[in-house]
Amino acid sequence: MHPARKRRRTDRRWSLTGLKISRIRDIINSRRYAMKRNGGKGIRRTSALSSGKTVEKALEKALEELGASVDEVEIEIIDAGQKGMLNIFGSRDAQIRVTRKTSSRGTEEAVDEVMRTIMDSLDVNYRLFTKEEEDSTYINIETAGVDGLLIGRKGDTLNSLQHLVGRIVSKKLGGYQRLTLDVGGYLSNRREILKQKALKAAERAKKTGRDVPLEPMKAAERRIVHLALAEIEGVTTYTMGNGDLRKVFVSTGRGDQGQGRPRNR
């Protein structure tokens, strides 16, 4: 096969892939627009403020509004209400706030629905694995050979994908959802690598008495380093630089660079 012709075919293949990726947002937005035209069906609210003659009546209205059962919600009684004289004078309706209980299962289902739209447009098979972390839901996606495409250079594509999916899922579930979206365990492995680098930098700073800089990192990665060294006695961290890829410095407080430097994330 002629080399030039082969290059043209390769370029065409990647341009088609790029076109598919660029259409993902349009595909998702068109589905959300269709849901709005369908009366909002598919967008689930997470809380409702309700009032009624009694707490029971207010609760009944709130459950109907949310489409939930009493076992699926938390109930806050704002005002228990008052019957008043002859049930007329001085009476006051009860007022409550009902909030749907959150679970990693609900978040996983919402992420699965969004990812199905994306993966169908790319014609890719995938699986989701979920676990509950301290302050978020961790969801790992495994694909049939296109993990690198979804991760991108230094995780840039994955970062954009997490932002997009997170916004859509939060909108769908009716409130902000803290989730970590991973592909092929990339973020999990990256987290461990950063922790090890941070620990080695701390040992080096202790031995030399000089501040040790780490590679430029995004905000989320800098936070991992700060937390990894937060409990190590005699070691502090601070951030210097401009833009998204700022550097974390590991210091024992003895180096010239560390004098008076605050710890930033």
UniProtKB/TrEMBL annotation:
GO (cellular component) term, any one: cytoplasm
PROSITE patterns: R3H (PS51061)
Biological role: A probable RNA chaperone. Forms a complex with KhpA which binds to cellular RNA and controls its expression. Plays a role in peptidoglycan (PG) homeostasis and cell length regulation.
UniProt similarity note: Belongs to the KhpB RNA-binding protein family.
Single Gene Ontology BP annotation: regulation of cell shape
Subcellular location: Cytoplasm
Lineage: Bacteria, Candidatus Eiseniibacteriota
Listed PANTHER family: PROTEIN JAG, RNA-BINDING PROTEIN KHPB
Subunit structure: Forms a complex with KhpA.
Protein name per the record: RNA-binding protein KhpB
Record flagged with keyword Chaperone: yes
Domain R3H: 188-254
HAMAP family per the UniProt record, alphabetical: KhpB (MF_00867)
GO MF: RNA binding
Annotated region (Jag_N domain), positions in chain: 49-99
NCBIfam families with a match to the protein in the record: Jag_EloR
Keyword terms: Cell shape, Cell wall biogenesis/degradation, Chaperone, Cytoplasm, RNA-binding
Native source species: Eiseniibacteriota bacterium
Entry domain remark: Has an N-terminal Jag-N domain and 2 RNA-binding domains (KH and R3H).
